Amino acid sequence: MSDGPATFGLRIARSADDAAIAAIIRTVMPSFGACGAGFAINDPEVDAMSGAYERARAAYFVVESAGRIVGGGGIAPLEGGPFRTCELRKMYFLPEARGLGVGVHLLARCLAVARGYGYGACYLETLTGMDAAQKLYRRAGFKALPGPLGATGHHRCDRYFLLEFP
pTM of the predicted model, to two decimals? Predict the structure, then answer.
C-alpha cells in the first residue's frame, strides 16, 4: 500500500513483532489518557500479540514503514458476546502513520478477514478524545451504541460502535 510520502506494508504479526507492538500500545494509549485499570493497555496479550491471535477466527496485523512497525490492529471473537460478533482490537498507530490513509487500509483488511471468518458484525470500544478514530469508524459504516457489548473488561472506555455486515 502506498499512502502519502511513505510506503506502508501490511502483514500478519509475527512473534518478532511483539515488543514493537507492545511499545506502540504503551505509547499511544497514555497519550489519549487511556492508562490504568479498565483499558486494553493492561490486557495480558499486549506482551505477546502475535500468539494471542493465533487462534480460530482471529488475526492481528502490523503496519510497517521502512522496515519499522508503526501500527497494528486485529480482530478476534468478542469475549462474552454473540458467536457471530467479532471485536476490532488494539488498532493503534504512531503519529507518523496517522492521517495518511493507513487506518483505512488496515480497517478494511480487518473487516474483510472478519467477513471471511463468517462474522455477522464487528464491535469496537474506544473513548472520548480519539476523534480521528471515531471518524474513521463512522465512515466505514459503524454505528454508535448506547453501551458496551460482551465482557471485554475495558470498563473505562466510553464509546461503543457496531458494524453489521450485509
Answer: 0.92
